[in-house]
Amino acid sequence: MGVKNLWSLLTPVAEKMPLWELHGKAIGIDLSGWVCDSENFNQNTSQKNMYLRNLFFRTSNLLLIGAIPIFVLDGEAPLLKYGAIEKRINGNKAPIKTHVVRKRLNSFQKQCELLLNIMGVTCVYSPGEAEQLCAILNKNGIVNGIVTQDSDCFLYGARVVYRNFNASGNGSVDVYSMESIEKKLKIGRNKMIALSLLCGCDYDEKGVKGIGKDTAIKFLQALDDDVVLDRLRHWRSDTVLNSANMDIKSQTNEIKLELKIRNKAIENESFPSEDIIEEFLKVPNYPKVSAKWILPDINAFINFASTKLCWEREYAIDKFLPLLTRWHLLYDDKFQANILMSEIIKKRINKGIKCYEIKWNNYEITSIEPQTAVQRRYPNEVSIYEDMHTTSSKKIKKKVTIHDSNLFDVTNKLQSINISKKLGKSKKINEAKDNIKGPLDRFVMKEKIKDDSLTLSDFECDPVDLNISDIINGIIN
């Protein structure tokens, strides 16, 4: 959807980014893309209303990593698009009435809007295509980037696009930055509009017959972005090109390439289509939008989940409670959520973030919350918890350190003592004692001991005779 082959052209400059890097960012989301993805997947699952289930979990993921989503819903389709929509829905059958073209999509959007309102998330209807308003919000700095699969968003003025949104595991998105595209590929917004005219888009699927992406890009990259549309507009009346066309063989390769494209394009009397150019460049009136997250309604969600998703009450509470508690910690200055922290159970690490496991007064279920968020709402309780655990930790550490140190010293002392049995010199001493018969013998024995330099290791010593407790106590004391 969008400009033919534009994504393949832009892929070399895309960067994969973990989802948690959207923390602190306002994100515009083209809702219809998520609905269509889920409906295609829904054919292989028994889950009722898969588009609502996926919407809930994807949105929850964004909210819990600290992003603020703003969902944009499709408004009235541009008249230019009716032909493409009819072909997409009706195939080669007889044309359908324009007022029923988006009846099914509108029904899906209403259900999604109800769910998002329950979650406290902002929804806004675009005057036309959803990607158009997403792009305007991004261009005007209201959102930091937009989630969409439609490459049209760049032609409407988007600057940062998150494509291939994946919430499984740690999650990821492919980031396309217009700044990087302009710098590395030498392609700006106007060149993309020109590419849509030459190669085709949702508003003119055929484009110029015989002109492919590579040929068009080679031509466009040689021009400045701010002159390219006027260049196409004046192809018929350009006297230089008309003159060069009379003697193509003598022209430069650049002129030959342009003439090749130009001669095929002007076969269509309406080329270039001013309606298509106007569609991408106009700035429609749109409602005021602000990035905010309001109080989620857990009771309304329990009823919604029961009827639309066939979820049991306990399961619905388990999945929704983290949204309520996180909103309470971040925004509930007036304690409107009717929920209070009962106790901090223990410290946790969740995806590399320091957290607390929290028990709440109204529910048996616990939740894992960032320490910074808990500190903001419950500074006194956190201070008490940290003081208690810091004191306990110091005591344990001190006790362990003393024992470790003493055991280390004991080990060194014992290693210096040879407690293996030696009979050598100690046997001689015993034999000498038995032969003592008078003062002279005693004198001779003493001198013998001195000469042999007898030590503790010279005496027979059995390990069981050593009093280890006395040795340890002596070292400690």
TrEMBL record:
<keyword id="KW-0378">Hydrolase</keyword>
<dbReference type="GO" id="GO:0006281">
    <property type="term" value="P:DNA repair"/>
</dbReference>
<keyword id="KW-0255">Endonuclease</keyword>
<dbReference type="GO" id="GO:0008821">
    <property type="term" value="F:crossover junction DNA endonuclease activity"/>
</dbReference>
<dbReference type="GO" id="GO:0046872">
    <property type="term" value="F:metal ion binding"/>
</dbReference>
<keyword id="KW-0234">DNA repair</keyword>
<dbReference type="Pfam" id="PF00752">
    <property type="entry name" value="XPG_N"/>
</dbReference>
<dbReference type="Pfam" id="PF00867">
    <property type="entry name" value="XPG_I"/>
</dbReference>
<dbReference type="GO" id="GO:0000400">
    <property type="term" value="F:four-way junction DNA binding"/>
</dbReference>
<keyword id="KW-0460">Magnesium</keyword>
<dbReference type="InterPro" id="IPR041012">
    <property type="entry name" value="GEN_chromo"/>
</dbReference>
<dbReference type="Pfam" id="PF18704">
    <property type="entry name" value="Chromo_2"/>
</dbReference>
<keyword id="KW-0540">Nuclease</keyword>
<keyword id="KW-0479">Metal-binding</keyword>
<comment type="similarity">
    <text>Belongs to the XPG/RAD2 endonuclease family. GEN subfamily.</text>
</comment>
<feature type="domain" description="XPG-I">
    <location>
        <begin position="117"/>
        <end position="187"/>
    </location>
</feature>
<dbReference type="InterPro" id="IPR006086">
    <property type="entry name" value="XPG-I_dom"/>
</dbReference>
<dbReference type="InterPro" id="IPR036279">
    <property type="entry name" value="5-3_exonuclease_C_sf"/>
</dbReference>
<feature type="domain" description="XPG N-terminal">
    <location>
        <begin position="1"/>
        <end position="95"/>
    </location>
</feature>
<dbReference type="InterPro" id="IPR029060">
    <property type="entry name" value="PIN-like_dom_sf"/>
</dbReference>
<dbReference type="InterPro" id="IPR006085">
    <property type="entry name" value="XPG_DNA_repair_N"/>
</dbReference>
<keyword id="KW-0227">DNA damage</keyword>
<dbReference type="GO" id="GO:0017108">
    <property type="term" value="F:5'-flap endonuclease activity"/>
</dbReference>
<protein>
    <recommendedName>
        <fullName>XPG-I domain-containing protein</fullName>
    </recommendedName>
</protein>
<dbReference type="InterPro" id="IPR006084">
    <property type="entry name" value="XPG/Rad2"/>
</dbReference>
<keyword id="KW-0539">Nucleus</keyword>
<dbReference type="InterPro" id="IPR008918">
    <property type="entry name" value="HhH2"/>
</dbReference>
